[in-house]
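Weekly modeling sync, notes
Attendees: S.R. (lead), two postdocs, one rotation student

Agenda item 3: backlog of single-chain predictions. S.R. asked that every request posted to the team notebook include the full sequence so nobody has to chase files. The rotation student volunteered to paste the first one in as an example of the format we agreed on. Action items at the bottom.

Example entry:
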Amino acid sequence: MSFKIKKIVFDASFERKFKNYKKKLSKKELNRLKERLIIFKNNPFNPKLKTHKLKGSLKEYWVFSISYSDRIILRFLNKEKVFFIDVGDHSIYK
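Predicted structure, as returned to the notebook:
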């Protein structure tokens, strides 16, 4: 499954969390985040991202890895558009 994401949408809640998340990152981590977002837009199922569907109460969502501990939870709206829901470490699953 390989396709390009043309549009990423999010709400004000995600935007706040993302800004706070970025403030905590080092320059190296910030560069990794930018790189992972570019990879995601070009191929959301690139093996580097470890994109996978969640289970249980989050079964309608997907997640991809930014780093060993950090993730972005999202929902695919269609083949070209995704909705970012949350960002952070494993506590975002709660």
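Discussion: group reviewed the output briefly. The CA atoms of residues 42 and 77 lie 16 Å apart.
Action items: rotation student to repeat for the remaining queue; S.R. to check formatting next week.
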